[in-house]
């Protein structure tokens, strides 16, 4: 999803830095993205709509062998409630069984996957059509789609198209999402992640452009604002 907040300094800095790091993407990041794409296709072939957004080191292209994978899961739960383990059996099924067992079949180097959120596409569509701008699910969807790395995006593209040109919606949620991104940036773990990313680039022998180092420094200054 293209950045719906093109004049927002916080989002622009985050996305600009992410794009800079992706220019030095590791083989491990490529491998994991490919394997998770294969996983999505296998599930899709079974008849269920599924999509993922990847966060963390894979999102920035900086994953290594010991990295975990954090993801957002997109599923149609068949009802208009918030997705939970109890009311969306597919979430429990795919996280506990297929993501674990199928990935072991797809890769000779299994890694830990953590589902940090699940978006119920049935509820999302209803909220969008009813213009429920205060519904948390719309804000979460826009946030993840703006900052994360999508896998099997064709499943969620129709929902993006429903809101893509809705300037009223984006004005309504911009302040909330900017604050959410600032909270994320200000977390100590986020700052440490960038230190690790720069260290990995140096260890790999990549010549880190001074502009990237400066952008990281400027970006991390947002932690103090």
Task: Explain what this protein looks like in three dimensions.
- With 225 residues, the chain is α+β, with helices and mostly antiparallel strands.
- It has one domain (9-224).
- Helix content is 58%, strand content 10%.
- A 4-stranded mixed beta sheet has the order 3-2-1-4, sandwiched between helices.
- Helix 4 (89-106) links the parallel strand 2 (69-75) and strand 3.
- Helix 1 (9-22) packs antiparallel against helix 10 and helix 2 crosses helix 4.
- The longest helix is centred in the last third of the chain and has 20 residues, at 167-186.
- It is globular.
- The two termini are 27 Å apart.
What secondary-structure arrangement, pairings included, does this model have?
Layout: H1 9-22, H2 27-45, E1 50-54, H3 56-59, E2 69-75, H4 89-106, E3 113-120, H5 121-129, H6 136-147, E4 149-151, H7 157-163, H8 167-186, H9 188-203, H10 210-220
Parallel strand pairs: 2-3
Antiparallel strand pairs: 1-2, 1-4
């Amino acid at each position: 999803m293209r950045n719906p907040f093109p004049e927002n300094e916080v989002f622009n800095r985050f996305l600009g830095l992410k794009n800079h790091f992706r220019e030095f993407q590791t083989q491990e990041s490529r491998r994991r993205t490919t394997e998770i794409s294969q996983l999505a296709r296998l599930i899709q072939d079974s008849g269920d709509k599924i999509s993922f957004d990847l966060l963390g080191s894979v999102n920035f292209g900086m994953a290594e062998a010991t990295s975990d994978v954090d993801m957002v899961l997109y599923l149609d739960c068949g009802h208009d409630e918030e997705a939970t383990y109890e009311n969306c059996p597919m979430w429990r099924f795919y996280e506990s069984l297929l993501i674990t067992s199928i990935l072991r079949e797809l890769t000779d180097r299994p890694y830990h996957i953590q589902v940090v959120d699940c978006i119920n596409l049935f509820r999302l569509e209803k909220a969008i059509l009813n213009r429920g701008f205060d519904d948390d699910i719309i804000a979460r969807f826009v946030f993840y789609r703006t900052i994360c790395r999508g896998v099997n995006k064709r499943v969620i593209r129709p929902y993006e198209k429903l809101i893509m040109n809705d300037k009223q919606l984006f004005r309504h949620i911009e302040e909330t999402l900017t604050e959410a991104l600032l909270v994320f940036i200000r977390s100590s773990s986020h700052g440490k992640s960038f230190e690790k990313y720069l260290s990995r680039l140096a260890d790999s022998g990549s010549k880190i452009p001074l502009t990237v180092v400066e952008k990281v420094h400027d970006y991390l200054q947002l932690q103090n604002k």
